[in-house]
Amino acid sequence: MKVISLTNNSTNCYLLPANDGWLLVDTGLPDTFSHLLQLLFKNSISIYEINYLLITHFHPDHAGLVQNLRDLGTNLIVHEDQIPYIQKLNSFYKKNPRANFRDIVPHHIITVSDSGSRDYLQSIGIAGDIIMTPGHSDDSVSLVIDDNCAFIGDLPAYHLIEAYNDAVISDSWNVLQTHNINLVYPGHGEPYVLDPSRQLVESQNFLV
User: Fold this and answer.
1) Structural domain total, the chain
2) Is 123 part of any domain?
3) Residue 19's domain spans which residues?
4) Rounded to whole angstroms, how far apart are CA atoms 65 and 36?
């Protein structure tokens, strides 16, 4: 599968091909829209080709440009368990104003569940699932592509589970393991490979 990385400041944003354009995973901070446009231009992609957007968790560095993209026609896909966290991010920026942040409008959102996400993804040409993988935050999700890879946001890497000693993180990785992934695309840092025992093998560049 073709994956294009757009590292917006320190946040990895990923583009995946969909039936009629691209799905973007995460956006970067709210004052980085011009930089996102530059990254797209370098990859010969128009902002208007991003038809779908998935946020791994609603923290400022991952969801800061959500409404900017929606205002241009991008469809926001949200796991049902993430819905309350949209308002939490809006409230955060009301208390901590930042240039160019636009309140995320809580209407006309494509809402999916663990069990229902596959059908929706299939309808836009992507074979996979959106699953809850808390650990970094309670609203964290991962996009898992069938027998291939996972986009995990800020979920701590599998080989760090012992250091965190956190049952929630461990449980999230147990769920991910059932999907037979071998490549991991994190929200920060380089993609990495897992061997059959799910230990870190090496960091490599699997990006276009």
Assistant:
1) 1
2) yes
3) 4-203
4) 9
In-domain check, residue 19 = yes
Distance CA 174, CA 208 (A): 29
pLDDT digits (tens, 9 = 90+) for 114-172: 899 999 999 999 999 999 999 999 999 999 999 899 999 999 998 888 899 999 999 99
Cβ proximity of 96 and 89 under 8 Å: no
CATH of the domain at 136: 3.60.15.10
Reduced to 3 states (helix: H, G, I; strand: E, B; else coil), residue 162 is: helix
> pLDDT tens across 69-120, in order?
999 999 999 999 999 999 999 999 999 988 789 999 999 999 999 899 999 9
Question: Residues 27-61, buried b or exposed e (16+ Cβ, 10 A)?
Answer: bbbbebbebbeebbeeeebebeebbbbbbbbbbbb
CA atoms of 67 and 76, how far apart (whole Å): 9
* Residue whose structure tokens are 């592509």: 145
Do 91 and 104 contact (CB within 8 A), yes or no?
Answer: no
Kindly state whether residue 134 falls inside one of the protein's structural domains.
yes
Domain for residue 208, yes or no? no
Side-chain half-sphere exposure of 88, counting CA atoms within 13 A: 12
Tokens of 43: 């990859």
Number of H helices and E strands in the chain, helices first, is 7, 12
